[in-house]
Sequence to fold (267 residues):
Amino acid sequence: MSLVAVLGDVATTTTVALAASWSRDPSSPPDGVGVVVLEADPTGGSVGAWLDLPASPTLSTVVTRAVDGGWPAVASLVHDSPSGIRVVPAPTRSMEASRAVAEADRWLFGLLAGLGDPVVVADLGSPVPANGPPAALGSADVAVVVHRQATQSARAAAVRIERLGELVDLAAASGCALVLAVVGDAPFDPDEILRFVAAPHGVDGSLPPLVRLPDDPLAAAVLAGRSGVSARRLARLPLMRAASHLAATVATVVDSVGSISGGRSTR
Fold:
């Protein structure tokens, strides 16, 4: 198993931060790939612009050119970004992106889920539960559901938590192990949010893992392409420190799922 799905609020920022913070397994081969970001948001991609990548190849290129070549063909189309993150960006236009994601759901996500290396972190955007489960959830073993608390009022925040509950239900119904990431500590305690939305989906009465993420506009801006902040300073910013904890938590869940079930079946 090697496919982790990220969905919900600020999914792209969280995906990039997670990939940047992922620690390589010491037991993996020295020539291993490590982590690849796959942008699978059918509303259109932004990672390519964030990381200053060429306009092509994109996910559209992968699903049309690599269908018969397995991982080596896919790997030949992965970008090496200037920041060191390896990525397959989605097309920026929504119609092209939605077609590419639909095609990827036919074969690519299942292929990636069966890899031992790399770990693929897929940005699914912020799906609407009424539209059904987003592509890739059926192949992913772990879903990181990200929620950013509303600061306008407690009532507005409560409404958004109800909608978060729908998204958590959707991810759980797909058979994924869950990790909840909450941005902000107010107006509700993140532990209360976890109990409200995830209690029905715990294993043997336990709750899924919760990771608190800070509201860190500077780190988010740097991940989205802002220059003028050194790599050393970025690593010290609150979001990146929290992302390291998120990466360690997700890696633990990945290992747990793999040891118990051997991973999800590929399609």
About this structure: The mean pLDDT is 90.
